[in-house]
Amino acid sequence: MARAIIGSGSYTLRGDDSGQIQVLAQWLRQCKDQGFDWKTVYQQIYNSWAQRRPLLPPSEEMERLVGSLIAPPPKYRCPKPLVWATVHAQLRDWYENHLVSVGDPPPVPLILNGWVFSSASEKHQRWEDTVSWAARHECISIVDAISEDDFVTWNHDEPSWRPQAEDE
């Protein structure tokens, strides 16, 4: 996309240069949010196109622009595996000590193999199920005690790892 924006003849012939820089900055922000080294990407773009497109901002200015853009809220989230295991143990203890609904234990966390073999959306849904369970059984304070730093977030659904069938 960056090449299409900067390499197009319309970049200098029509339209607002600052608008096109804004589109490029938004694209770079998406790269950043997905874990790509957006600064290296921009540096390569800048090195390739700055002579032909002198209105490209220097790296420091682009960094300020990209940093000023608000990242979209993560679409999927759940606790880190060790935290999730601890919370599950606390919920399980609560369940056993309060003899709530026999046959309705807290949802099993997707940790260990569950983590590896589950997608981001599956982990997110299981966590939502856990939060709902805690609310239904009046022990939501256990879930609410988790720090934001103890969560993993994703902006897109990462597929789970699936073993490949061996070629015969």
User: Using only CA atoms, what is the Rg?
Assistant: 23 Å
**Which secondary-structure class do the elements indicate?**
mainly alpha
Beta-strand content: under 5%
Number of helices: 9
What's the shape? elongated
Listing every helix as H and every strand as E from the N terminus to the C terminus, the arrangement reads HHHHHEHHHHE
Mean pLDDT: 82
Tell me what you see in this structure.
This protein is mainly alpha-helical and 168 residues long. It folds into two domains: 2-68, no CATH class; 76-154, no CATH class. 55% of the residues lie in helices and 5% in strands. The chain has nine helices and two strands, in the order αααααβααααβ. It has a two-stranded antiparallel sheet with strand order 1-2. α3 runs antiparallel to α4 and α3 (17-33) packs across α5. The protein starts with a helix and ends in a 14-residue tail after the last strand.
Question: Which features would summarize this protein structure in a list?
Answer:
168 residues, 2 strands, 2 domains, mainly alpha
Architecture blueprint of SSEs:
Blueprint: H1 2-7, H2 10-13, H3 17-33, H4 38-49, H5 59-68, E1 76-79, H6 81-98, H7 113-116, H8 120-136, H9 140-144, E2 151-154
Antiparallel strand pairs: 1-2
